[in-house]
Structures are given as structure tokens and as C-alpha cells.
Amino acid sequence: MRRVCLFFVLAFLLLFTVFSVLNVGLVRGAEFITINADGSVTGTSNIVSGDNATYTFTGNITGYITVERNNIVIDGAGYTLEGAGDQDDTGIFLSGMTNVTVRNTRIVNFEVGVWIFAYSSNNTVTENTFVANDFPLSISVSSYNTVSENVLTDNNNGIWLDTAIGYGNVSSNYNLISGNNITLSFWDAIALANGASNNTIIGNNAVNNQYGITIGNLCNDNIVSGNFVDMTESGWGIRIEYHGYRNIISGNNIRNSGYGFYFFRASYNNISENNVVDSTYGVYFFESPDNKFWHNNFIENTQQVDIDLDSANVWDDGYPSGGNYWSDYSGSDANGDGIGDTPYIIDANNTDNYPLMTALGVPVEKSFNVTVGETDYVITTVSNSTVSDLIFNQTLKQLSLNVTGPSGTTGFCNITVPAELMSGDFTLYLDDAALVEGVDYTESFNGTHYLFSVTYAHSTHVIDLFSTEVVPDFASWLFIPFLISATTLGLALRRRLKQQKPA
Predict the structure, then answer these.
(1) Are 489 and 455 found together in one domain?
(2) Same domain, 435 and 389
(3) Are 264 and 238 in contact (CB under 8 A)?
(4) Does residue 384 sit within a domain?
(5) CA-based angle 63:64:68, to the nearest 5?
(6) 411-426 burial code (b ≥16 CB/10 A, e <16)
(7) For the chain, N or C: smaller number of CB within 10 Å?
């Protein structure tokens, strides 16, 4: 017994020593790499260049790269650049550089993944993957750079633009942040801070982050457009704070957030053509007057607007342009001009004088849960109409929903149905009139879901979908094995009785 215990103790100590050595070796083995101004590379054999213009990885690298040469491309070729997770470590560092492209690299476990610093300009970071970094991508005191088509997942922060200590009021301006996919950030997906101004944040997807997009202190004249922000838990979709002025926020889709928009001491911003859906608060204000909201859709938020202290804002663009669409507005439209006959009153200092009768501009995506037995099925609609009252009837093999929009305009509704719920051949009706495939609607199937795209003249309509197959009732499936078991038991009992019957 003692020998066995001694063996395990020695084995544990040996493994501990091996792993300790490996760990120290990993940290000490990190390469300090430089792409020098003369075109040479020092510190690694895993980066090659045949023309001193394109530098290509030939294998994974554990180390840190400093760039001292302009007008080059660093192509990771899908390989990984990994750090030791130490504080102040940077994966790829550019200071005062121009026209450097970093692409196709997996960048993992750094304090800063890529740092564009100190008057660097016209650089591009594209098609990279950032994982487990503190700041995956930072632009400091640098302008006219592009960050596009990157994937950032499971980092502490997302994309960060700001100034740096010792550079006074110089910040990061005129940068383009576009087409990036950012998930599972502990803090902001995208953040502008310390005077970062005149930047364009467009077409990014930020999903399952703590916070969405933040326009921070003294950040002015930025454009935030066409971004999708979903599920920021208790955080915000888009926040403007501390004297952020004249920012244009348009065409964004914000869903499932604690706050769709969050304004903290920010004024003179223009917010239009955004969708804020299924959030706790559509908009929150703290000491933020003189912002203008028009042509936004506020749909099924728990509280559309929450105001604290001195926040009188403008909520419409006058008549006939109109104000915003509010899903809880109960007014009428007697003359059919698409604008409610009575104002939408938020509080004594905030009124939408010309509320819209239907959602306007950017199509709205909504999700509906259908429960059969103990299973939930998600049906998704994307429409420029107001979609409501979705009902699934298992017995009739029928899915029904209402669509509403202003007369004189054309409406559409894209309906996505899981094949596990409904399948086979489909028939569609609009107000009990059969629709013709290829004329009134189109149907497609991607292997898991059916997609129906229906068009119609706007009014109030009922769309019905009938299928030949639907998910069976869970209770019926439970009853079948019970019936089989009962039948089997009955037959067995009958045989036994026959066997026991006296001759």
C-alpha cells in the first residue's frame, strides 16, 4: 500500500514538474519578432516574404510582432499568433505606420491583439479572428484606418477607439469599422472614447455581448448605421454619453437589450430609422436634452421611454414626415394619412406630435414561440408591416398571423417556419383568398426551415399557412408505447391463464 501511495506521489510531482517546465518554456519561448524598416524579419522563421511587401505566416507563432515597415501586407494564412496572456503584451503593434494590412490571422491570448498607435493611418485589419484577448483590437491616436470583416469572440472587450496618455486632445478620427462579427465580449462590442470623432460604425453584428456600441466622452460627429445588436442582457444597445454631440444614429436593429438607447449627458444627436424591439427600456435619458428622434420603430419594449432629469427632446420631424412608430400607441387615423390623429405623450416635456400608424423604414424581425408538448419551436418574421397574433393550430395544420400597414403602400412579410413543426405541401391564404406561388408569394427550403415571402397591398390582413404534415402531439407519442405495453401485458396474461386452465 505504501509503495502504491509513494508511486502516485512521485507521479504527481513528476507531472507537476513537467507541466511547470512546459509552461515556463512556453512563456520564455515567446518570440519577439520585428518586421524591420529595411524589409527583413527578425525573431522567427515562420514569417517569409519574397518581395518585402507581403509577409506570410508558414506556421503558428507564439510571440509578439512589431511592425516598422510601411506599405506591406501581413498575411497569417489562417495560422495562429498566440501570446502568453501577460499584461501589456501586444500581438501586432503598429506605431506611426501607414498602409499596413493585417489579414487572415487567428490572434489569441494577448492584452492587446492588434494595436494601431500614434499617428498610424490608412491601415487595414481585415478577415482575422480574435479570441481570448483583453482588447482584441485597439486604435489609439490614429486616423483613417479600416477594421472590417473580422470575427471577435470571447474577449473581454471588442473594438476600441480612443486617445492615449501624453497625447493631449489628439484622438482617433475618421476611422471605418464595418462588417465585423462580435460575440461574447465581457464589456462593449465597439467603444469610442476620449474624443474619438468623425468615425463610421456600419454594418457590424454584435450578439451576446454585455454591452453593444458606446459613443463615449466628447465623441462627436460619428455615424453609427446599419448595425445589428442583440441580447446585451441588462446592458445597452447603443449608448451616447458625456457630451457626445451631433452623432448620427440610423438604420440600426436593436433587440433584447436592457436599454435600446442609453443617453447620459449627451445632446444634439440625430436618431432615425432604427428598430428597438423586445427590450426592457426602448430609450433611457439622464440629463440629455435636445436630441431628435424620428422614423424609429419602438416595438414591444417593456417601457418605451424612461427619463431622469432635464431631458426634453424632439420626437418628430413635423407633418407630413411624421414621428416614430410606437407599438403601444392606441390612437386612430381617420384620414388614412399614416399618422395618428392624437399625439403620443411620453411626459410633460416629451411628445411625439405625429406618431406613425405602422412601422416604417427598416424591416422589423420578430420571433414567436410555438409550444407543442414540451418542445418550443421558433417562428421568425421579417416585415415592413406590424405583425401580431400569431397562432398555430395543430389539429388544422394551420399557422395564422395578422399584418397591418398604411393604405396605399406595398407590404411584405417573410415567414420562417422550422420543418420539425410544419412540412410537406403548403397552401397559403390572404384573408381567405388562395395565394398563387410565384405570383403572390415564394417558397424555399434550406434543409431545416421553410421560408415564405408574401407581398400584398397594405391594410389589415390575415395570412394563413396550411401544411400537409405537422409535428405530432407529444401526448399521442406517449400514449402509443403505453398502448403497446398494455396490449403486450394483456396477451401475456391471457397466455398464462390458458396455460393454467385445467384440462
Answers:
(1) no
(2) yes
(3) no
(4) yes
(5) 145
(6) bbbbbbbbbebbbeeb
(7) C
Beta strand 410-418 pairing with 375-383: antiparallel
Q: Which of helix, strand or coil describes residue 35?
A: strand
C-beta of residue 171 within 8 angstroms of C-beta of residue 201: no
> Do 503 and 486 reside in the same domain of the chain?
yes
Contact of 320 with 292, CB cutoff 8 Å = no
Cite the beta strand spans of 309-363 per DSSP E.
Answer: 325-326, 344-347, 350-352
| Contact by Cβ (8 Å): 122, 98 | yes
Spell out the per-residue pLDDT of the chain, length 503, in tens: 333 333 333 333 333 333 333 333 333 457 999 999 999 999 999 999 999 999 999 999 999 999 999 999 999 999 999 998 777 799 999 999 999 999 999 999 999 999 999 999 999 999 999 999 999 999 999 999 999 999 999 999 999 999 887 787 788 999 999 999 999 999 999 999 999 999 999 999 999 999 999 999 999 999 999 999 988 778 999 999 999 999 999 999 999 999 999 999 999 999 999 999 999 999 999 999 999 999 999 999 999 999 998 899 999 999 999 999 999 999 999 988 889 999 999 999 999 999 999 887 667 788 899 999 889 999 999 888 888 899 999 999 999 999 987 777 788 899 999 999 999 999 999 999 999 998 899 999 999 999 999 999 988 999 999 999 999 854 444 444 544 555 555 555 555 545 554 54
Distance of CA 152 to the CA centre of its chain: 11
Asked if 378 and 440 sit in the same domain, the reply is yes
Q: What is the edge-to-edge ordering of all strands in the sheet holding 386-393?
A: 386-393, 398-404, 460-470, 422-430, 433-434
Name the E strands within 68-158: 72-75, 80-82, 90-95, 100-103, 106-108, 112-117, 124-126, 129-131, 135-140, 146-148, 151-153
Among all chains, which residue has been given the C-alpha cell 421553410? 450
Cell of 15: 507531472
Hey, which bits of 226-310 come out as E strands? 228-230, 236-241, 248-250, 253-255, 259-264, 270-272, 275-277, 281-286, 292-294, 297-299, 303-308
Return d(Cα 264, Cα 283) in angstroms, integer: 11
**What's the sign of the alpha-carbon dihedral 446, 450, 451, 454?**
positive
432, 501: one domain = no
Cross-strand partners of 352: 344
Whether 386 and 422 map to the same domain: the answer is yes
